Amino acid sequence: MTRVAFKMRLKPGCEAEYKARHDAIWPELAEFIRQSGVRNYSIFRLDLDLFAYLEMDDTSPTRLSTEEVAPIQQRWWEMMEPLMECNDDASPVVWPMEEMFHLD
Questions:
Q1: What are phi and psi of 81, to 5 degrees?
Q2: CATH second-level architecture of 2-96?
Q3: For residue 84, what are the contacts with CB-CB under 8 A and spacing of at least 6?
Q4: Where are the domains of the chain?
Q5: Average pLDDT, the chain
Q6: pLDDT of 48 higher than 90
Q7: What CA–CA distance (Å, rounded) separates 77 from 1?
Q8: Looking at the predicted structure, is the pLDDT value of residue 61 above 60?
Q9: Which of the four pLDDT bands, split at 50, 70 and 90, describes residue 39?
């Protein structure tokens, strides 16, 4: 299992809408994420900064990159683009984080 953490950033005034959209995540997107080998996926907010943490099966295809994007993932990104700092392809700007400590 691989632990992954990264930071993203909201646009000012979009905090409530970001939360509402995730509270109503599309069931087919949630299933896509699970089938990709991702579990224990959480996103936390501090002001406009978002901190995401997930665990991924070591044998899972890496679907966190923007190289191979499923249509459902692309549609979600496009829906979220007005709320977040995003790249030209609508994917969120992501700052990967290095794990510095872990205790089970």
A1: -55, -40
A2: 2-Layer Sandwich (3.30)
A3: 8, 9, 10, 11, 14, 18, 50, 92, 93
A4: 2-96
A5: 93
A6: yes
A7: 26
A8: no
A9: very high
Is the Cβ–Cβ distance between 10 and 84 less than 8 Å? Answer: yes
Cβ pair 70, 20 in contact under 8 A:
no
Orientation angle between helical segments 71-80 and 27-35, nearest 10 degrees = 130
Among 3, 22, 34, 45, the one annotated catalytic: 22
**Rounded Cα gap, residues 65 and 36, in angstroms:** 12
**Residue 102 annotated among the catalytic residues of the structure:** no
Q: Mean pLDDT over residues 32-52, rounded?
A: 96
Counting every residue written for the chain, the total comes to 104
